[in-house]
Amino acid sequence: MTDDPTRVAIACQGGGSHTAFTAGVLRGLFQDWPDRYELVGISGSSGGAFNALAAWYGLVTADEERAAALLGAVWDDLAADGLGDRVANDWVVGLSRLENMGVPVPEVSPYRSPGSEFGQRELRETLERHIDFDELPDLCGRRTPELVVGTVDVNGGEFETFTNEAVTTEAVLASAAVPNLFEAVDINGHSHWDGLFSQNPPIDDLLTVPADRKPEELWVIQINPQERAETPTSLAEIADRRNELSGNISLNQELRTVERVNQWIDEGHLPESDFSRTEITRLEMDGEYHCSTKLDRRPSFIEELLERGAARAPELFDE
């Protein structure tokens, strides 16, 4: 019988401000991380990419305590706490609610709106305030967790992930570049959009690693609800549910591949000497929120999601 810790990878789904829930889950995990687990990988798309990066950076530069603190600091900065920021937040959320009620609202391309450039500049400053991206290549190593950020290549029409030292400020900004809010981010001559339209979150990159680093357990923190009791009727609700389904479809497809490999191992079709099982656990965000709240950065709302996530974190250890 071995005393080696169980290897775990965490995949963080995107979903705007709702991903503060994921930050709360990660903080709860790191504040009481047991020795029986070893984190070998973490991935994320959109807001999930912010969480994955902050958690990874805190861990590799210090420890679990630093990771939990860094997640809190990043979301403190993302919250709309200044007067101008609060006014802008209320305006954006209010427009979204009016649109949901069927009221015609002006639509402006992010390429013709100063708000797009301002928003991306604010996100860049937040990232670079807490993360030294120049340090990342030296931090990546054989025994550090795999770091994966998901985007979509607009020109190439392909999902694209950035791993470890390839995770730059641009890669994370691209992962959060919602097309109707922000301009696409140029990386290597190609435009990139939000990871919500690709692998949400990336799974395969967490598993295609050396055998001794492959996770034995995969924990998925899922923001998009798998089921909704009500059928969306307004255009805004329909668009939101369509995006949720798109993200969940890519996630479920990747997880089914993992489950199929597990089944083939159990049935003896694949030799256990060359293949290993990866158990999957999902933690789905509870509670139903209006689609406009994915844009809501009120400090009180962010704190509510952080606390809700932290309260749910022990469920992963229980599983």
UniProtKB/TrEMBL annotation:
Residues 10-207 form the PNPLA domain. One of its GO terms (biological process) is lipid metabolic process. SUPFAM superfamilies: FabD/lysophospholipase-like. It comes from the Archaea. Coiled coil: none annotated. InterPro entries: Acyl_Trfase/lysoPLipase, PNPLA_dom. The keyword Lipid metabolism applies. The keyword Lipid metabolism applies. Transmembrane segments: none annotated. Keywords: Lipid metabolism. This is Patatin-like phospholipase family protein. It comes from Haloglomus irregulare. The lineage of its organism: Archaea, Methanobacteriati, Methanobacteriota, Stenosarchaea group, Halobacteria.
